[in-house]
C-alpha cells in the first residue's frame, strides 16, 4: 500500500494525518466527522471559535459540499487548484464544529499532487489547516514538526519542503480578502474587474 493510500485509510478511520500542500504542511482529518474535527482542534490547541477549511480534489467535488454562487464558481474555476481558500455557504451536512457555527466554509483545492491524491484516497473532504500548534509558525518541512504535536498525529506524509507562502483567504461574494497570501494581487485584480458595476 502506498503512503498516500495508507494516509487516506487513516483519515477514513477518524485519524489525523500531516500532509504537504503547495503552501505549508497541513493537518488532515475527515472534515465531515465532528469527532475527527475535534481531534484537529485538540492537536492544534486551537480555539473552537476559529473555523477550519476543508480540502477537496477538484471544484466539482467542492460543489457537493457548498452552495456556490455563479461568481464563486467562476472564481474557483479560475484560481483552483491553487494557493487560495474560498469562503462559500456550506451545505447542511458540513458540521458546525468545522465552521465554528458560521454559515460559510473555506474551500481548498491545493495545487499539489500529493495533497490531491490524499483527498482522493480518503474519499471525503479533508481538513485543510496548518500542521502546527496555534500561534506557532507554520511548518514547511516535516523535520520541524513539534514532538508533542507529532504524538497526537497518526501518520505523516513526508514529501520534502514546501513553498511556505500561506493561501489567500477570500470571500468572493463580498469582494473581501480576509488574509493576504499567495496570488493576493492577482485575486484583487480579478475581484475589481468582476465587481458588480
Which key phrases capture this entry?
197 residues; alpha/beta; DHBP synthase; ten-stranded mixed beta sheet; 8 helices; 32% helix; 19% strand; globular
Can you give me a brief rundown of this structure?
By secondary structure, this protein is an alpha/beta fold. It has eight helices and ten strands. It has one domain: DHBP synthase (Alpha-Beta Complex).
Task: Write up this protein.
It is a single chain. Strands 1, 2, 3, 4, 5, 6, 7, 8, 9 and 10 form a ten-stranded mixed β-sheet that branches. Helix content is about 30%, strand content about 20%. The protein has about 200 residues and is of the alpha/beta class. Helix 1 packs across helix 6. The protein has helices at about 5-10, 35-45, 60, 70-80, 95-100, 115-120, 145-150, 185-195, and strands at about 15-20, 25-30, 55, 65, 85-90, 105-110, 125-130, 155, 170, 175-180.
